[in-house]
Write a structure and sequence with these properties.
Number of helices: 5
Strand content: 15-25%
Structural class: alpha/beta
Number of strands: 7
Mean pLDDT: 79
CATH architecture: 3-Layer(aba) Sandwich
Order of helices and strands: HEEEHEHEHEHE
CATH topology: Hypothetical Protein Ychn, Chain: A
CATH superfamily: DsrEFH-like
Helix content: 25-40%
Shape: globular
Strand order of the largest sheet: 6-5-4-3-7
Number of domains: 1
Largest sheet: 5 strands, parallel
Radius of gyration: 14 Å
CATH class: Alpha Beta
């Protein structure tokens, strides 16, 4: 169970895309991400469409990590290819406030609010934000 009392997806992260599967790395620009024994929180808060933002984030993540889409990051749901990729991401949380503000009615993962993000950060530490 996750910190919200919901069942987590079983097993490791499924194939996300051929690109991600073939080149999993633990590096971000100008910073090496250390292997972690506890889950980490990743945030995408800028529009990832027409960028490699989502791919870079998912290459860095491990199956036990959390991904939180908020602000313009929820626009990833509007791109069919990104939606398909996100559908296979375990521990995906999407800001309901930001989805409602953009009239987005389809989603994958778990709909969440600001208190969910605060709980994740309180439990697992400062988030890693991809820009």
């Amino acid at each position: 169970m996750d910190i919200f009392g919901k069942n987590l997806h079983e097993g490791a992260q499924n194939e996300i895309s051929a690109d991600i599967k073939s080149s999993v790395v633990n590096e971000m620009p100008n910073q090496t991400v250390m292997e972690s024994s506890s889950p980490r929180v990743f945030i995408i808060n800028t529009d990832p469409r027409n960028t490699d933002l989502l791919t870079r984030c998912l290459k860095t993540m491990h199956s036990e990590d959390f991904l939180y889409l908020m602000a313009d990051g929820v626009n990833a749901l509007l791109d069919e290819a990104m939606f398909d990729i996100l559908s296979d991401v375990p521990n995906l949380y999407i800001s309901s406030f930001d989805m409602n503000a953009r009239s987005i009615s389809i989603w994958c993962g778990e709909e969440a609010n600001a208190s969910h993000l605060v709980a994740l950060i309180a439990k697992y530490g400062n988030p890693i934000t991809f820009k």
